[in-house]
Amino acid sequence: METLKDNPNKISENSAIIEGLYKAFAVGDIPAVLGGMDSNIVWNEAEGNAYADGNPYKGPEAVLNGVFARIGEEHEYFNLKDIVLHEMSNDKVLATLRYDGKFKNGKAYDAQAAHLWSLKDGKVVSFQQYVDTKKLHEAMAK
Hints:
Layout: H1 10-26, H2 30-35, E1 37-44, E2 57-58, H3 60-74, E3 75-87, E4 92-103, E5 108-120, E6 123-131, H4 133-140
Parallel strand pairs: 1-6
Antiparallel strand pairs: 1-2, 3-4, 4-5, 5-6
């Protein structure tokens, strides 16, 4: 097993990959985001999130159709803000952030969130979302 002592830049490389994915998402470059995923990625939305109905999403196409497309269809806007990356061991990166969104029903929200990313060979192999699902549910309600 490779350790930080063996390769002290390993976690920084992982953080740079995740930072690049957030930047791509911010400008709507979804193909670049999907390209950062392993073909067998396992993606989980937070329990209680409406998009968790497809958990676990397996593969980039499942994430595209089950999460990203639904966000686009249901939102006037959806932005990630105040993103802070926390370097972790075992090829994991934790991101703390906020969701700044507005559903097409006119209800806006600002919700605290965290994303736990796991990488292998420069690709994301798993993703776990944690979010204030109560705020999302209240904003989603008609």
